[in-house]
User: Fold this.
Amino acid sequence: MRVFPLMQRRGDMASRTQNHPWHLGPLGPMEKWPASLHSAVDTALGTKFPCAIYWGPNLISFYNDEHSLFLGSKHPTSLGKSCKDAWQEIWDEIGSLIRGVLETGNSYCAENSHLLMTRNGYNEETYWTFCYSLIRNDDCSAGGVLNLAHETTAQVLSERRLKTLRELTRLTAGLDATNHVLKAVIEACNSNVQDIPFAMIYSMEQIEEGTPIKLTLQWITGLERDHKASPSSITLSTGTNNQESQWPIEEVLRKRKLVLVSDLFSKFGNISVGPFPESPTEAVLGLLTTSEKDEISGVIIMGISPRRRFDDDYRGFVELFLTQAASAVNTVKAIVQAENRAQEFAQVDEAKTRFFSNLSHELRTPLTLILGPLQDRIAKESDAESEDLKIAHRNATRLLKLVNSLLDLSSLEANKMKPNFKSTDLRQLTSSLISMFGSAIEKAELELTQSLPMELCACVDTSMWEKIVFNLLSNALKFTLKGGISVSLRVSDSKEHIILSVTDTGTGIPSCEFPRLFQRFHRVEDSNARSYEGTGIGLALTQELARLHEGFVSVESVVGKGSTFTVTISANLQVAKKLTSIGRYFDDGQKASKGDDHVNNNDSASNSYAIPSLAETFTREAVQWLPKERTDNFNLHSPILDTKKGTKKMSSILIVDDNADMRQYVRKILDKEPNWRISEVANGKAALDRVRVQPPDMILSDVMMPIMNGFQLISNLKMNSSTASIPVILLSGRSGDQGKVEGLDAGADDYLVKPFSAQELLARVRTQLKIGRFRSSLERKVRRRTLELINANEEIVKSETRYRTLSVFSPVGILHTDLHGNMQYVNEQFLKIVGLDNIEDASRKGWRRTIPPEYDQILNEWFETPHKTKDLQFKLEIQFLNQHLHKHWGLLQSEPIMDQHQPHISGYVFAVSDITERKNLDKERMEIIRKAEAIQLKRARDAERHQRQQERFVDMICHEIRNPLNGIINNVDLLLSSVKDRRNSPAQSESAYKQLLEDEEATEAIKVCAQHQLVITNDVLLLSKLEAGLVHLNKTPFDPVLMTRSVVGMFSAEARSKNINISFEFSPEMKNHQNLIGDPNRISQVLINLLSNAVKFTSNSLTREIFITVSLFQQQLDVFLKFSVKDTGLGMTEEEQSNLFKRFSQVNTKSPQLYEGSGLGLFLSKSFVTAMSGEMTVRSSPLKGSEFSFTVKTEIVQMPTTECPKKEIKTKQYFSNLERAQKDRKILIVEDNTVNQRVLQRHLTSNGYSCKIASNGLEAVQLFEANWVKPKNTETPFDLVFMDMEMPVMGGLEAVGRIRALERERGHPVMVPIVGLSGNAREIHINEGLAAGMQMFLTKPYQKDQLLKTAQQLISQFDALRHLGD
Assistant:
């Protein structure tokens, strides 16, 4: 019984193929199949690459296990079925391709080709990369088609869906409205109608919980509006069964995940949408949700392709699409919410402004109309009759103070009270404010002391400073029953702050009250005070006003001993101007703020009546706390600030004398002047105290007085710059020039001797008042000029103010620090981004508390690095973490601030941008990229696996195809030799001779077909190796002249038989450089291809000439070798030349029987030339022949100029008679294929060699061990070994290793030559064989002459080496 190779195959398809009833079909029983079909089917079943064969006129189908995975429900019925019947749905596409391969013999390849299959019960969209190749029959005719196929559907769909996601990202970038995002989502759906044939987005609206939910169709693509499947609106009633819509919207709202609808036809009928004729039968519903409380932005309905199943990949794409769409909606909603919040805040601020403006008018106007008439009636009535009116007036004044305080607090809360900073003589202002309270404190029998600097100019809001001072003095007077009140004003040691302290000896404050002391409306309970009245607003207002001056209020107190309240504000003019730029502060310095109406503006009612001043409201309230008997004659008007319209300012004169009668007499004289206001004290000490509280315009002083005399008083006055300019007239009883000189030397402005006349006194007083006013005028001018100089930088301040005002509205956070990172200024946006609640948290280096340690360390190193050695422009992305654990990403950048006066850096400005949304988007994009990379990685792995399969397939094809071809060609050689010997025998009859001639012709035909099949097989296999990256260049030294002569010699016999003259010429440069470095094998292969074509297309020409030129030229530093092959053949048209170097391209397709070929020769040749850094060109004209030229990059080998000494070898008789030596040579043939065994054995034995056979590597090793002879070390069991590489049981590589190990064990210095045999002699296989110990490789099918020449050469070398060893 005949045994077929496929009977030895294992696997499902091998079993099914073996057991299929072939005898019932057109192929008949397997015993009658041609050998080529057996070989092809066996090869296909043995490969791991998806493979199918369509054989014979009916194209009967064969396929392997891997290919069956593609067939779906078509397996296993497709086995033995006609390809046309098995693939009816795609026959229109593939039928013509298969017929073209059968008719022309040219292969056809396609990449990612779209085919519509019904392998799974529906029209399925699939994509394939496949190749159709011709399989020849035993008689070289077309037998069938080999189909190598790989499904790329997943790859194509992944790329298409990833493109859709990228398109969605592009369309939604930069949008600022949710509706625009939803429109972009629909546009992205419309960009991929293959996967999303239709889509709809519904918006949701529910008035309140429990009411019906209304969905409105916003955007749609693919379907028409108001289609049965796309109603314009849907209403979902809670608690009832909704039948209005066929879509399961309630289910998707309840589950909050994708819901698949699989029965669209029964619900909506035929939906004709999308690029396919089939109607979609499935759709999926999903939600567009926001990250905040999972709020639903809309419901999206997406159609599913009728040509794809909704599998995990499809679901993953839809989920990723919805996630990206929801992310875009979230981003836009965040932007819209931020804008809405900003508008709401602006509206609230505007409403507060209107409210406070109206409230100021509505409260202050009635109070004005109450206080004005009361004041008029009090002036007209007697003291007894006006008592009730005075009570009403005092309480109305107190109510006005309360209203003003409440409005101040409200303005502060609304951020509408803006300081009007002015450069001010703060010492003079504070002294005046204290003097207004001086009389009330004196009436309370308390001692008032003050400590003010000689001079102090600062930038403050004067009205706010009045409120601060009056509130602190009012509290001190209220809670101090005995002792005194001390006020001090000073500049801090650092010169950066101004400190105002008010100390009393009052009741004190318990320490437990300190935390709440400055809270609004908080009052200390059970405290001993002059009155229980109070609102708890004063200290809170003082704290807020101090903050507006970039300051604060602190307190120290001991119960029963008193308290000290300290107000600290900024003393730096530049800091004050910086404060104005925050947007909460500064005006232009000339007008009051709009939010402080009650301070700077009067209502219409004030046209008739004046509102009491701030000082009056505070002093009237303070006077109410004192006993009545102490306040009967109390004058509420300030002697300094009283003015009368249309009159001169009153001058104050202080009389200092210990004699009461003298004081009365002088007062009586001075009272005659109506514009003089007189006061008196008894000694110099009392006068000095009075002056400190209330400086007069002039002093009349006696010289001789107790406690402190007149000279001492003058000395103390001159020591203080604020009192040094007060004119002093001394009144003395000492006459003569001596007393006058002493008085003037002491610093007196005038000296009057008692007794004096009234006229003289009045004249001297008038004169000194004029001089004093002139002196004061000069001092005011000096101060004014000083202030002008201070204000000289106002334009710079205004510019900075405008700049910093912009920072308030800037979306970028701004921070100003000194050189060490201490905060100087910060805007609200910076606090918001970094996660700080208020400006106090950012003071000094507090702004860095939300920066993670690893970033803070970077900042520390940057601040500590010297300026000259670091990059001043700092840039860092930081994830801030605030106290609420909300993480924000910010981009922190810095710029240095250069000092205006000196060329050095004074600080840094940091800008921080909120990049949280960008980071979130980046994270989402990275997730998309990660998934895409995962897909790409999977593709790469699939490609790598595919390449490995290709390598294995190529190796297997090389082995499985070349082995039979080796047997065919070599057996044909043996048969042809035998037929020729018998034909040349003289004993043959005429009929026998004729029969032998016919046998010889048939044998020659078989050889030609086999050689043609070998050429095509080699080209196809070389193409496969080239595409799989298995072809490598092997650069070695070679002689181009000898190589060219050798190639030409290969065609000499054929050229002579066809009367073709081949000539060649070498350029002169070739004589000087005969040794080059390159790949001679690849160069020879290209030259052989060109010569083969030239011989083929010149054989039928009238003139048959082929001319070859070889030249060497240099281009820049590179050396190139150029070959030209010119013939007188058919020539080519320009159109034929354009396709010449394409794979499977043939020039003359009309006569394939004359010019057979695979169409791969020139494609492969150009590929090799390109790999060798060269180029190939052609010039041709029809009927005028063609000239092919190619260049390859080489290197010149410098040969040594001196000859190496030769060692004389005595060969004795070893080379005297090679023919006799061959008879004694033993050759071991190691081959698993019995046909190749017999061919090798016949070739070698017919030439006198003795042969032994081993079927695998193990048998070869055993023969070596069994036949080893030990008498002489140089004797071995065999003189040569032909070793197949791929064999069962033990392969060739392992066997060679074992044999070499045996030789080393026996101490043989000379190794037996071993020749490797393989149908797939790739470079890697050759290297492995040589490394294992082989000497040479022969690639199947080999020629008889090549085989015998190799055997003779290696045996001769072996003998020579053994002789040297002896």
